[in-house]
């Protein structure tokens, strides 16, 4: 898998991603401490609101930026967004009011919503070979998982010698180094395409392509399945470990590390697995696995009300490990689907649509996990999320047919016979790899 790092451009972009992620991880720790300094016991409410603002920024801003990203100089745009994020992070240590946290978080996450999909849409152009791109997706998944493990440990080590305010400087440095690394490489030029229509048409283009493509409609349903499994871990780990089991902060970190470890195992295994099996089969199996793990956990908890911690604790660690495995196996191949579902000039808009729609799923599952976890026994919360996960799989099966890959036979009654797209075609029907674009606005009905 590491052989793909021999590509100089990708190697530096991957390093930029890692450094920016570490900076963001330090920001997460510092922001929690800042919220506690300003709000005391209400810090959880402040952080919850900040998390909701983050998701709203992701959902609202990404499609707008995606509409115009392909028309802008890619390299300059990425550097500018890194510099904007660095400038905003530089202001955070000087915050003195809670509302200021909310404003700065919205601005910072809006810049991230502009940067991340554009960055992700660049990688397929840097690595045109699908096998290399698959390895890059697995490396990206590993980077996210390692960040979740390393950043808290790095922050803890730094806090022994510096104030938490200085952690923000690590965030600033991360974004500045990321900008420098992007500056140091030559990126493929985005295809310049003149688009008809107004701002609304351009802003919604990515979402329209996404929702008109069967495999991407299936991906959206699988995004919900993955968000259901992930939200249970992120929201309820501390509730279960400290509230139900009466354990400490170290055990919370260990449980989250198990989830990350499972995700890394899947990321390492996926490149070879995807060489032998289609994406659809792997992703569906992983989503069903997620639902099954949640269902088994629900059944176990419903019959173990009086079980000792010595029984529940190992079961929780194993469950979190398996959830991480399934979560990563659903999420990691998504870039391959996006890559083959749009022309190069539309990829920024389609990646932005995925970024926004997937985070909309999290915007639903985050509060749902919190509300159900507080109102119901944990066994019923697991059961509810198992049902949500499996229902999402059923929707994906319905909207993503198994035979939609390969050349698709379709007609062009709307085009004149001498149109360049019909050159060499007898009549107006032909077959080719199908993507939604200006000449193909709807997916053709299956024949037979």
From TrEMBL:
Keyword Plastid: no
Major localization listed first in the record, in broad terms: membrane
Pfam families: MFS_1
Presence of the UniProt keyword Isomerase in the record: no
Subcellular location: Cell membrane
Database matches in CDD domains: MFS_MefA_like
Top-level taxon: Bacteria
Keywords, alphabetical: Cell membrane, Membrane, Transmembrane, Transmembrane helix
Membrane topology: Multi-pass membrane protein
This protein's name: MFS transporter
Lineage: Bacteria, Pseudomonadati, Pseudomonadota, Alphaproteobacteria, Hyphomicrobiales
């Amino acid at each position: 898998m590491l052989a793909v790092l021999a590509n100089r451009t990708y190697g530096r972009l991957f390093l930029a991603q890692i450094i920016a992620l570490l900076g963001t991880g330090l920001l997460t720790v510092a922001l929690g401490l800042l919220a506690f300094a300003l709000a005391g016991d209400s810090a959880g409410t402040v952080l919850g609101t900040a998390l909701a603002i983050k998701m709203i920024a992701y959902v609202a801003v990404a499609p707008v930026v995606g509409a115009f990203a392909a028309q802008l100089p890619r390299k300059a745009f990425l550097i500018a967004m890194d510099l904007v994020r660095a400038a905003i992070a530089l202001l955070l240590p000087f915050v003195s009011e809670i509302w200021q946290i909310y404003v700065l978080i919205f601005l910072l996450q809006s810049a991230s919503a502009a940067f991340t999909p554009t960055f992700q849409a660049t990688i397929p152009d840097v690595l045109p070979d699908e096998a290399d791109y698959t390895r890059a997706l697995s490396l990206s998944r590993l980077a996210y998982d390692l960040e979740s493990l390393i950043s808290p440990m790095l922050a803890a080590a730094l806090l022994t010698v510096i104030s938490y305010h200085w952690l923000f400087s690590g965030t600033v440095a991360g974004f500045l180094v990321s900008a420098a690394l992007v500056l140091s490489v030559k990126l493929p030029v985005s295809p310049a395409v003149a688009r008809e229509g107004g701002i609304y048409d351009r802003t919604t283009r990515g979402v329209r392509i996404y929702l008109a493509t069967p495999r991407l409609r299936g991906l959206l349903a699988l995004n919900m399945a993955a968000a259901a499994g992930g939200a249970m871990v992120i929201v309820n780990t501390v509730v279960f470990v400290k509230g139900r089991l009466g354990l400490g902060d170290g055990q919370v970190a260990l449980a989250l590390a198990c989830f990350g470890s499972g995700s890394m195992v899947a990321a390492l295994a996926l490149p070879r697995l995807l060489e032998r099996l289609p994406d659809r089969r792997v992703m569906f199996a992983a989503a069903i696995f997620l639902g099954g793990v949640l269902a088994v956990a629900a059944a176990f908890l419903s019959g173990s009300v009086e079980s000792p911690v010595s029984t529940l604790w190992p079961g929780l660690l194993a469950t979190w490990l398996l959830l991480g495995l399934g979560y990563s196996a659903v999420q990691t191949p998504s870039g391959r689907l996006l890559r083959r579902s749009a022309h190069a000039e539309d990829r920024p808009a389609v990646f932005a649509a995925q970024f926004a729609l997937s985070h909309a799923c999290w915007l639903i599952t985050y509060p749902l996990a919190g509300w159900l976890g507080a109102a119901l026994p944990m066994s019923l919360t697991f059961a509810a999320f198992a049902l949500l996960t499996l229902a999402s799989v059923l929707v994906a099966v319905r909207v993503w047919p198994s035979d939609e890959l390969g050349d698709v036979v379709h007609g062009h009654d709307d085009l004149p016979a001498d149109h360049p797209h019909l050159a060499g075609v007898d009549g107006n029907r032909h077959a080719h790899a199908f993507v939604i674009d200006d000449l193909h606005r709807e997916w053709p009905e299956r024949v037979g």
